[in-house]
Specification:
single chain, alpha/beta, Rossmann fold, UDP-galactose 4-epimerase, domain 1, 2 domains, 7-stranded parallel β-sheet, globular
C-alpha cells in the first residue's frame, strides 16, 4: 500500500493480535476498510494474520511499545495479557507472572497512547474482576457492572484487570483520553486455544468429546454444577466495535446471559457430536461457583446485546476442534 492509501484509511493498532480474540478483531477491522498494525509475541496459531503489518514484539518492553506506537492511530485495541483457562489462572502457580506481565503492558500502552494523542483506546477487561462473594450461588450470580465494589476477585488475574480498569479511567479523568472498557465473559469459538492447559471450558470439553471413543467417559473438574455463560467470538467482536463507535466509556459487560452448568455444556457438546459418553467428575481448579453476564447496561447504552444461542456457537467450535484432533491423530500416526 502506498502512503496516500494508508492516509485515507482509518488506522488501528491491535495489541495481542496473535491471540484468539485479537486475530478475529483484525479480520473484522480489515473487512471494514481499516489499515491495521498488529503486535504480539507470536503470530496467530491457526491462520495467517489479516493485518497490514504484524510486529513480533514484547509489549512489556517500552522500546517495542514506542516502535509500534510511532504514529497517531485512530483506534488502539489493547487485548494483550498473560492469560489462560482455569488450569492456568486458578492454580496460583502463575500469579506473579500474570500480575507483572499484564500490568506492565497496560502501564506502557496507556501512557504511550496518551503521548501519541490516539483517537480512542479500547481495553479488554474480564468478568474475573467481579467479587467472589457475589458468585457463590450457581443459580443466582450477580455480575452487574455496579457490583464490582467492594472488590474481591477470586484470582490475581481478576485483581490485575480491576487495577487496569482504574488505570484507564484515571487517564480518561486526568488527560481526557477517549477510553472504552469492556468486561469479557468467557469468549469461545474456532481458532481458539484448545489444548495445553490455557484453553477455556468450551474448547476443553469439545476436545475431550472429540477424542473420546463412543461409550467411554470424559473428565470434568468439580461436580459440574458450577454455572457460566459463554459468548461466541463473532458477537464479542461486534460488541467491541459497537462500544468503540458509541460515546459510552464503560466498563460494560460483553457476554451472553444464557447461563448453563458445565454438565449441561458437556451434554450439549455430546449431542452435537452425536456421541454417548459418561462424565467422570474429578478434582481440579474451578474458579467461582456461578457466573453469568448481566446485559441490562449494554442494552441501555448500546441498544444491543448478544443474542446467538450457545448451541449454535458450540456446533461451529466443535466442528473446528474435531478437525484439529483428527489432524493431530493423523500426524502422529494414530489413524
Amino acid at each position: 500500500m502506498d502512503t496516500k492509501d494508508k492516509r485515507n484509511k482509518k488506522r488501528a493498532l491491535v495489541c495481542g493480535a496473535g491471540g484468539f480474540i485479537g486475530s478475529h478483531l483484525v479480520k473484522r477491522l480489515k473487512k471494514e476498510g481499516y489499515w491495521v498494525r498488529g503486535v504480539d509475541l507470536k503470530n496467530p496459531d491457526f491462520s495467517p494474520t489479516a493485518a497490514d503489518e504484524f510486529v513480533i514484539g514484547d509489549l512489556r518492553d517500552q522500546a517495542v511499545c514506542r516502535a509500534v506506537l510511532d504514529q497517531s492511530f485512530d483506534e488502539v485495541y489493547q487485548l494483550a495479557a498473560d492469560m489462560g483457562g482455569a488450569g492456568y489462572i486458578f492454580t496460583g502457580e502463575h500469579d506473579a507472572d500474570v500480575l507483572h506481565n499484564s500490568a506492565t503492558i497496560n502501564l506502557n500502552i496507556i501512557d504511550l497512547t496518551r503521548k501519541q494523542k490516539v483517537g480512542k483506546i479500547f481495553y479488554s477487561s474480564s468478568a474475573c474482576m467481579y467479587p467472589a462473594y457475589n458468585q457463590e450461588d450457581p443459580d443466582n450470580p450477580k455480575c452487574s457492572e455496579e457490583s464490582a465494589y467492594p472488590a474481591a476477585p477470586d484470582s490475581e488475574y481478576g485483581w490485575e484487570k480491576l487495577f487496569s480498569e482504574r488505570l484507564y479511567l484515571s487517564y480518561f479523568r486526568n488527560y481526557g483520553m477517549q477510553v472504552r472498557i469492556a468486561r469479557f465473559h468467557n469468549i469461545f469459538g474456532p481458532e481458539g486455544t484448545w489444548q495445553g492447559g490455557r484453553e477455556k471450558a468450551p474448547a476443553a470439553i469439545c476436545r475431550k468429546v472429540a477424542q473420546a471413543p463412543e461409550g467411554e467417559e470424559i473428565e470434568i473438574w468439580g461436580d459440574g454444577k458450577q454455572t457460566r455463560s459463554f459468548l461466541y467470538i463473532d458477537e464479542c467482536v461486534e460488541g467491541v466495535k459497537r462500544l468503540m463507535e458509541s460515546d459510552f466509556i464503560g466498563p460494560v459487560n460483553i457476554g451472553s446471559d444464557e447461563m448453563v452448568t458445565i454438565n449441561q455444556l458437556a451434554e450439549m457438546t455430546m449431542n452435537i457430536a452425536n456421541k454417548k459418553l459418561s462424565i467422570k467428575h474429578i478434582k481440579g481448579p474451578l474458579g467461582v461457583r456461578g457466573r453469568n453476564s448481566d446485559n441490562t447496561l449494554i442494552k441501555q447504552k448500546l441498544h444491543w446485546a448478544p443474542s446467538a444461542l450457545l448451541a449454535e456457537g458450540i456446533k461451529k467450535t466443535y466442528a473446528w476442534i474435531e478437525k484439529q484432533v483428527a489432524g493431530k491423530s493423523v500426524k502422529h500416526g494414530k489413524q
